[in-house]
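User: I'm new to structure prediction. If I give you an amino acid sequence, what do you actually give back? Let's try with this one:
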Amino acid sequence: MTRPFAVLCVLVGLVGCDAFREYAPGSPEPEAGDEREARVATDDAAAQVLARPVVPDPEPMVLDVRSATVSMVVLTDGDAEVSGTFQRVTGTLTAPDGEPAHTLAGAVSIDMSSWESGEDARDAQVKDILFGIEEHSSASFRLSGIEGLPEDGIAVGAEAEGTARGQLSFAGGAAEVEAKVRVSRSGGGAFHIDTVEPFVVSVDALGLTGSLKDLIRELRYTSIDDAVRVSVRMDLVVGSEIEPQAEGDETESVAATRNAQVAAREDPPATRAAQEEDKQESVPRAKLASPARKGKGKGKGKGKGKGKGKGKGKGKNSMKKR
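Assistant: Good question. You get back a string of structure tokens that encode the predicted 3D arrangement of the chain. For your 322 residues, that looks like this:
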């Protein structure tokens, strides 16, 4: 067999093998160029996903109400303003995404018996007739969110304004609330929420129209406006940072505490002097008996009585007759 003929046979055999693989039963069909590239790209994307580090979900930020005041102003007899506050407010707000405050949501409870307007007799009638605290001891406000705040959170020492939305519920009635608020941050876990301007709540929306009429008759007013202007101030801290209070102690305002700390840092000598003075005043001082004085008269006196030393002397520090 000549060499060219042998080479020709080898080529024919190779072609035959490829044809056999192409048409043999059960053999995979050859991939087109585009399909092959798509499969390779898919495999590469899957490999990148598997190689990417797993980032855990952010821990939610849970804030408890440290102190709060809810103030209300109502018009009586046409133009007279009556204002008062609720001093006992409790509750918890949670930011599921951690630091960003715009995701804050939750509920707070208002103790209706803590209403004070500066007139005890009127306060008792408001609590009894309008609020009916024997049956409805508390109102609740559920915050659904604060729109307009920075999505990346509020830095320490910074503040931002947004719109808070939620629902106020009391005695079976409910009113939708929308208020412009200012949110500030004074520490790693301390936030403060204040209304920029009062928002209005309708007495009728809370189902208190009948009670309001009874209160008008009892107080002998000609009218009490249905619209109540409400302002809110809340100091919130991370739950674990709340210091336990002794039973019966009044909760001190966070703002007042911060002001006292700042004043102490700005004028430490004066603060120490005041502390020393308080310490000294708190310890009663023993009174020392004054020593008896001996008088020495210069003049000689002629005494009429019996005994020595009973003469009348004209000198200084002369002892008086007892």
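You can read the tokens as a compact description of the fold. Here is one thing that stands out. The longest strand covers residues 61-76.
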